[in-house]
């Protein structure tokens, strides 16, 4: 009996120890994990399904336009109707991607649920009638508006809705391009230049993977482009001449990305000054696109640019073929896209940037005697990375799109283009978390001396710093800190 009682007493002690260990490691974190999984799973399923429907609709619109070329003449009317719908019913939804980024920075009224159907329908209309636009904007806005709606239904607070918006962006981007890891990194990287939102890492990655998986379950496939490997025996070996050619080309990629972003913003402002009515601006933009078709004598630069009307027609994959020479395609696509998007047509900038970057990379490769497929691929990701200020996401995109054999060249291209693109970008609501290195020689020398002084003989509290820190990173005052801790404790108690 004594032994039995001792055994029971020992078991009781072990149970108490396990309970104390359980409390020590904060069980609410496990509960929070299950809570987020319960929210992310349906969110990703809905966004993945919407993206599948969107991709199918986009393919239908493109093929229908090929069958009925006369649809192009309806572009001005289509633009007029789209802009009128946004003016009448859009309200906050007209902010698009920038509204979502603003809500991530400082949650306010939320992203209206009407944004999802409006951007879906208007993007399909743009492609059906021949506007030069992409699909990323639609995916991001679908993800953001659905995430915001689910957050309100679930009764989440502003901090949680912020993380949910990032997860929605990740799911939409990952599903529409078939690049889940890129989608997650893009969502973490795009709100603030030079800083990743690590607090949303697990929700964003989970949402992106599940969103892509659900989209594929619906039978959606994604285009991939072949690229030769420059590795030997499975190991990367740097070709120093090729490396410097990549750097040279990437400077051009960064400059073109900056020119694209500034042209888009300035053109939109100019049209607003000249024409007071948004529907009339879109009507005028449609007329300009039709005029460009007749001036250039081709329809190759209409629509999304990933498929061609004819089997041997010009499309994005053409630039990976060393036998084809299209020296001015990047400029023509640039003009068509700027006119389309700056006059109020809906869609996205990313796929046209893929087209522009690949075309420019192919052109540079032919001129300097470099591998065409490699330079087309680097231009594909680097121009977008520079325009969106998301170099890390685009390095990962290079791996998911083309394989990891040339990742060193991908990294060199994306980072160089990012530096040379300045602070211009296609997302005007981005904030600066860390400044980019200034490419002027005198500034580089001054920054280097400051870094040496800071690291070697200056205390850490010295105000002399290399980069501007985002205001959200500043230490809160003691009163605010106590208030935040009390709020966090209250939230944790609710989850328990």
Automatic annotation (TrEMBL):
Membrane topology: Multi-pass membrane protein
Compartment list: Membrane
Coiled-coil positions: none
GO molecular function, one term: chloride transmembrane transporter activity
SUPFAM superfamilies associated with the record: Clc chloride channel
Alphabetical keyword list: Membrane, Transmembrane, Transmembrane helix
Composition bias type Basic and acidic residues, residue spans: 470-486
Annotated region described as Disordered, given as residue ranges: 470-496
A GO CC term assigned to this protein in UniProt: membrane
Transmembrane segments: 30-55, 67-86, 163-188, 200-219, 240-260, 280-297, 350-368, 374-395, 407-428
Entry keyword Transmembrane helix: yes
Protein name, as recorded: Chloride channel core
Species lineage: Bacteria, Pseudomonadati, Pseudomonadota, Alphaproteobacteria, Sphingomonadales
């Amino acid at each position: 009996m004594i032994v039995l009682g001792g055994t029971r007493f020992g078991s009781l002690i072990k149970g108490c120890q396990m309970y104390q260990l359980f409390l020590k490691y904060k069980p609410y974190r496990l509960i929070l994990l299950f809570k987020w999984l319960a929210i992310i799973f349906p969110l990703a399923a809905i966004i993945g399904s919407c993206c599948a429907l969107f991709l199918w609709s986009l393919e239908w619109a493109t093929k229908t336009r090929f069958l009925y070329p006369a649809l192009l003449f309806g572009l001005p009317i289509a633009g007029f109707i789209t802009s009128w719908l946004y003016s009448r019913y859009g309200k906050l939804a007209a902010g698009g991607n920038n509204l979502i980024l603003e809500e991530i920075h400082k949650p306010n009224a939320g992203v209206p649920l009407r944004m999802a159907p409006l951007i879906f329908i208007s993007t399909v209309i743009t492609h059906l009638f021949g506007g030069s636009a992409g699909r990323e904007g639609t995916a991001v806005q679908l993800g953001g508006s659905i995430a915001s709606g689910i957050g309100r239904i679930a009764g989440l607070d502003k901090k949680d809705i912020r993380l949910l918006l990032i997860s929605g962006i990740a799911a939409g981007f990952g599903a529409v391009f078939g690049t889940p890891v890129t989608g997650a990194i893009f969502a973490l990287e795009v709100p603030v230049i030079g800083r990743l939102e690590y607090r949303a890492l697990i929700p964003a990655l989970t949402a992106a993977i599940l969103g892509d998986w659900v989209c594929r379950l619906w039978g959606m496939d994604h285009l991939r482009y072949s690229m030769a490997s420059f590795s030997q025996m499975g190991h990367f070996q740097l070709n120093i001449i090729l490396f410097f050619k990549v750097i040279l080309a990437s400077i051009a990629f960064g400059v073109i990305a900056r020119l694209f972003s500034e042209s888009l913003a300035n053109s939109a402002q100019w049209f607003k000054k000249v024409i007071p009515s948004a529907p009339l601006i879109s009507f005028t933009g449609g007329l300009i696109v039709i005029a460009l078709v007749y001036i250039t004598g081709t329809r190759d630069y209409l629509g999304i640019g990933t498929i061609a009307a004819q089997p041997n027609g010009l499309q994005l994959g053409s630039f990976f073929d060393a036998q084809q020479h299209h020296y001015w395609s990047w400029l023509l696509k640039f003009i068509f896209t700027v006119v389309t998007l700056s006059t109020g047509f809906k869609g996205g900038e990313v796929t046209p940037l893929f087209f522009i970057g690949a075309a420019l990379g192919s052109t540079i490769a032919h001129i300097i005697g470099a591998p065409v497929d490699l330079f087309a691929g680097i231009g594909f990701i680097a121009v977008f990375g520079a325009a969106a200020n998301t170099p890390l996401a685009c390095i990962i995109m290079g791996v998911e799109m083309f394989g990891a054999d040339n990742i060193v060249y991908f990294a060199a291209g994306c980072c160089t283009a990012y530096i040379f693109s300045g602070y211009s970008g296609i997302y005007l609501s981005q904030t600066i978390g860390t400044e980019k290195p200034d490419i002027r020689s005198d500034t580089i020398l001054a920054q280097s001396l400051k870094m040496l002084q800071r690291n070697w003989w200056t205390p850490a509290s010295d105000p002399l710093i290399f980069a501007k820190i985002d205001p959200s990173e500043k230490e809160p005052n003691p009163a605010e800190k106590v208030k935040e801790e009390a709020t966090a404790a209250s939230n944790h108690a609710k989850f328990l």
